[in-house]
Design goal:
This protein has 13 helices and 23 strands. The strands form 6 sheets. A 7-stranded parallel β-sheet has the order 19-20-18-17-21-22-23, sandwiched between helices. A 4-stranded antiparallel β-sheet has the order 1-2-5-8, with no helix packed on it. A 4-stranded parallel β-sheet has the order 13-12-14-15, sandwiched between helices. The protein is an alpha/beta fold and about 500 residues long. Helix 5 crosses helix 12. The chain has 3 domains: about 80 residues, Archaeosine Trna-guanine Transglycosylase, Chain: A, domain 4, CATH 2.30.130.110; about 120 residues, Rossmann fold (3-Layer(aba) Sandwich), CATH 3.40.50; about 230 residues. A hairpin with a 5-residue loop joins strand 10 and strand 11.
């Protein structure tokens, strides 16, 4: 096993794959570097002297600027590097968007809905219109478990704190996301649970839902019921009879929609987990499938790489608006645009937002960008899509599900137990995490720096694993009974 990696030939820093001690001699090509300090795993050290004010190159791109003179062999981190990013920028379109070569189709065992859409789960969802009925929804979920059968994969409630006392975009976003989840194909049946007096009451919500099957979607207004739990269970019995008719059947993987997001990345994420997801994304798209990349603030610093991969100037302009829209969101709240890396990111070796984003965007692979989605907008086109959502894990993962993702791939160097409304695959960037949190991690990419596996081989293994999940294999969060949702809040609460 190598103990360090120089990612790109032009890089001025290398990354420690294992903890390295001060005084160690590192052979980087024809160059010998003596480490001046201990270097933690995932952290960077200077391969040559970097004068104050000069860019620090990693992934072949600047990840920041030296705050002071950095001698050869020094630890390069937040104490001696700062972001080189500015505010809202002007961009030019320089196309670099070669299409992928098509590859042979593969099948998974999924569910075919009456409207023709594919699904990877056949669940019954309880969707509250407002946070006031969250505990009622949870009570219904508990008592409805007796109605689960071999053909129904689960019965779940999705509590949230919104649906009333909201204004403007917040209220609109809540309605769109709730409608998106009600329409999600993984839900074979849906009970929409309202209170009755809320802003986003059922009558208001129905136009957002659009056309629906009365067999598949049922509504209950708690204020109009003497015993809302009993009435809800009667409706879920009806939904269970309807949903129980569906059985798994072979479906083309070209119908899969897979969401991709980062999680608490460490310094190995851009070397192991995220490139592996990128290979997966290209494989799926080459077979006619669809992937969605989100967490716009984690694109800052690497956004031009995505912009130049846009299929045409219209999509380029939409991507520019996507990025600058989020920057304006920060500045409108008097917040710093580039204060993104979390304490966990920094502990794991991420120093700046550029450092984080150049690793993050590798999840997108090399496919052209074919679509740009606003928050709460369902995916419309095959291929790689960019989705407007923040970096918050719960909010971003829910946004992916709301836009139509059947499964979410979540790379992490720190670990997390959470889940989204759809199966959420936890992909570790390092083997230490995978070994320690076997109850959280589904797929380990740490082997890339240990056993000689290639990123292409591991990407294929991840593809096979995702097909297994799509065919019914439970991920760790599902086995634990975890399921969460969160809605993006931007403005005023009354």
């Amino acid at each position: 096993m190598k103990n360090f990696i120089k990612i790109h030939p032009s890089d001025l820093v290398a990354v420690a794959l294992t903890p390295l001690s001060a005084g160690a001699k590192i052979q980087a090509g024809e160059q010998t570097v003596t480490l001046l300090e201990d270097i933690p795993q995932g952290h960077k050290f200077a391969l040559s002297a970097i004068p104050a004010g000069n860019p620090i190159i990693k992934y072949g791109n600047p990840i920041g600027v030296a705050k002071q003179d950095i001698p050869t062999g020094s630890w390069v981190h937040i104490h001696n590097i700062k972001t080189g990013l500015g505010d809202v920028l002007d961009y030019s379109y320089e196309p670099d968007n070669a299409p992928l070569v098509p590859t042979d189709d593969l099948l998974f065992q999924g569910y075919r809905r009456e409207d023709g859409r594919a699904a990877v789960r056949n669940e019954i969802w309880i969707i509250p219109t407002v946070g006031c009925v969250n505990d009622v929804a949870r009570a219904i979920e508990r008592q409805a478990q007796r109605l689960k059968t071999d053909t129904i994969d689960g019965i779940f409630a999705f509590p949230h704190p919104y649906g009333c006392s909201q204004m403007g975009d917040d209220q609109e976003n809540t309605r769109k996301v709730l409608a998106d989840l009600i329409n999600h194909p993984n839900a074979g049946g849906v009970l929409v649970l309202g209170l009755g007096c809320e802003n986003s009451n059922i009558d208001v919500l129905k136009p957002y839902i659009g056309q629906y099957s009365e067999d598949r979607v049922k509504f209950l207004v708690c204020q109009e019921s003497e015993d809302e739990v009993a009435d809800a269970l009667a409706l879920i019995e009806e939904l269970a009879r309807y949903a129980g008719r569906f059985h798994r059947e072979p479906i083309s993987c070209g119908e899969l929609v897979i969401g991709m997001k980062c999680g608490g990345s460490d310094g190995l994420s851009g070397i192991t987990a995220n490139p592996t997801v990128g290979v997966f994304s290209d494989l799926l798209i080459s077979k006619g499938g669809t992937t969605i990349l989100t967490e716009v603030p984690e694109m800052f610093g690497a956004e031009t790489l995505l912009m130049n991969r846009c299929e045409n100037e219209r999509i380029f302009a939409e991507t520019v608006n996507l990025v600058n829209g989020f920057k304006n969101y920060f500045t409108s709240h008097n917040q710093t645009i580039y204060e993104n890396p979390s304490p966990g990111n920094k502990k794991g070796g991420i120093s700046t937002l550029e450092d984080k984003s150049l690793g993050c965007t590798q999840k997108s692979g090399s496919a052209p960008v074919s679509g740009v989605l606003s928050y709460g907008e369902p995916v419309q086109c095959h291929g790689l899509n960019l989705l407007s959502a923040p970096g918050n894990d719960l909010v971003a993962s829910t946004a992916l599900a709301a836009s139509g993702a059947h499964i979410v791939l979540f790379t992490t160097g720190r670990g997390t137990p959470f889940a989204s409304p759809v199966p959420t695959v936890k992909i570790s960037s390092n083997s230490a995490l995978a070994g320690k949190k076997k109850n959280w991690i589904d797929f380990n990419c740490g082997v890339l720096v240990e056993d000689g596996a290639t990123v292409a081989e591991l990407g294929q293994k991840l593809f096979d694993y995702v097909l297994a999940v799509a065919s019914g294999k439970e991920v760790k969060a599902e086995a634990a009974g975890f399921h969460d949702m969160a809605i993006f809040k931007q403005g005023v609460t009354l």
